[in-house]
Design goal:
Layout: E1 4-8, H1 12-24, E2 28-33, H2 36-46, E3 50-53, H3 63-68, E4 76-81, H4 86-92, E5 99-102, H5 107-114
Parallel strand pairs: 1-2, 1-3, 3-4, 4-5
């Protein structure tokens, strides 16, 4: 199996597309969620290689908050979001992440990002 990928996305269609792209790249989706407690559980249980993190999750906590409060992990973090305003970019800097990609994510870009 390829790299283990955890998808955090509240839009069901986008989550499905990201899952399809990961599988098309030879990766393995180890979980999909948009709930913080489920995210923490999945990080601990699955030890993903990569986390694809949406920022706007339609709740009090956003994806940046998820990463800031995440358990220790060696996973590469890629923010995948339409939110590219200066406040969001500055807030993201408080976390360790490996890339910030504007939606929509393409299969070609995912292959390049994840080095599949």
């Amino acid at each position: 199996m390829g790299k283990k990928v955890l998808i955090v996305e509240d839009n069901e269609l986008i989550s499905f597309l990201h899952e399809k792209f990961v599988k098309d790249c030879g990766g393995q989706v180890v979980g999909k969620t948009y709930d913080y407690n489920d995210f923490v559980r999945l990080v601990n249980e699955t030890q993903p290689d990569v986390i694809l993190m949406d920022i706007l999750l339609g709740q009090e906590m956003d994806g940046i908050d998820f990463i800031a409060g995440a358990p220790p992990s060696n996973a590469k973090v890629f923010y995948v979001s339409a939110s590219t305003d200066p406040y969001t970019i500055e807030k993201a800097k408080i976390t360790k992440y490996d890339g910030f990609v504007m939606k929509p994510l393409s299969l070609h870009l995912l292959k390049d990002m994840l080095d599949f």
